[in-house]
């Protein structure tokens, strides 16, 4: 089965997707990590994040895979924690806006789904573009302040909530207004507001929906 989860930065997608995948015994596909990996390589090679050609060529040159814990491997090397760095986060929206990059990564994502036979995936366009026929589609949301609080505690920077909130809002805007595969809710995606809910409550709700989808 394919469970696809989209939503803005910090809505809780990665933790929820990881736990849902473990509970269902499915592979985990973190599509954001793939866009981050391409961004990291573009920056390390001294290329221009605004250049569709540079970014597309970089995406096509990389071998992206995932280890048993769902962590990305770039040409056989671990991509964590570098892909979560500030520089990558600042430029990832620009890199991921290029069709040349998206075409390459979407093809890899579909190929992984085929070889794995089933997965839980999360990102911005997994319910709308990559896997529009997923068995279960979810759209996770939370308020910008709640999302900034979660991100800042994840990063161990509680004093930076305001800066992180501004960055989250900037990325939301860029990711939702870009021409290609913008962040949008598919009409048939279940809307889950995670404000004030624990991770366990959200995962339980998704597992209930997944069991229903498996039966139908
Ligand atoms: O989920 P994340 O914050 O790690 O994603 C990083 C960026 O990658 C996000 O700002 C937009 C882009 N992205 C995308 O364009 N499409 C996806 N399916 C996943 C992420």
How far apart, in Å, are the first and last alpha carbons? 12 Å
Average of the residue pLDDT scores: 95
Strand content: 5-15%
Helical run tally: 9
Strand segment tally: 8
SS-based class: alpha/beta
Oligomer: single chain
Principal-axis shape = globular
Helix fraction by DSSP (H/I, runs of at least 4): 40-55%
Main sheet summary: 5 strands, parallel
Strand order of the largest sheet: 2-6-1-7-8
List the helices and strands and how they pair.
Elements: E1 2-6, H1 13-24, E2 27-30, H2 31-44, H3 52-61, E3 64-66, E4 72-74, E5 77-78, H4 86-96, H5 99-116, E6 119-123, H6 126-130, E7 136-141, H7 144-154, H8 161-177, E8 190-193, H9 199-215
Parallel strand pairs: 1-6, 1-7, 2-6, 7-8
Antiparallel strand pairs: 3-4, 4-5
Helix pairs in contact: 1-9, 2-3, 2-4, 2-5, 3-5, 7-8
2'-deoxycytidine-5'-monophosphate binds at residues 9, 31-32, 35-36, 92-93, 96, 123-126, 171, 175.
Task: Note the main attributes of this structure.
53% helix; five-stranded parallel beta sheet; three-stranded antiparallel beta sheet; 216 residues; binds 2'-deoxycytidine-5'-monophosphate; 8 strands; 15% strand
Please tell me about this protein's structure:
- The chain is of the alpha/beta class.
- It has helices at 13-24, 31-44, 52-61, 86-96, 99-116, 126-130, 144-154, 161-177, 199-215; strands at 2-6, 27-30, 64-66, 72-74, 77-78, 119-123, 136-141, 190-193.
- The strands form two sheets. The chain has a five-stranded parallel β-sheet, with helices on both faces.
- Helix 1 (13-24) packs across helix 9 (199-215), helix 2 (31-44) packs across helix 4 (86-96) and helix 7 crosses helix 8.
- Bound molecules: 2'-deoxycytidine-5'-monophosphate.
- The site of 2'-deoxycytidine-5'-monophosphate (DC) has 14 residues, from helix 2, helix 4 and helix 8.
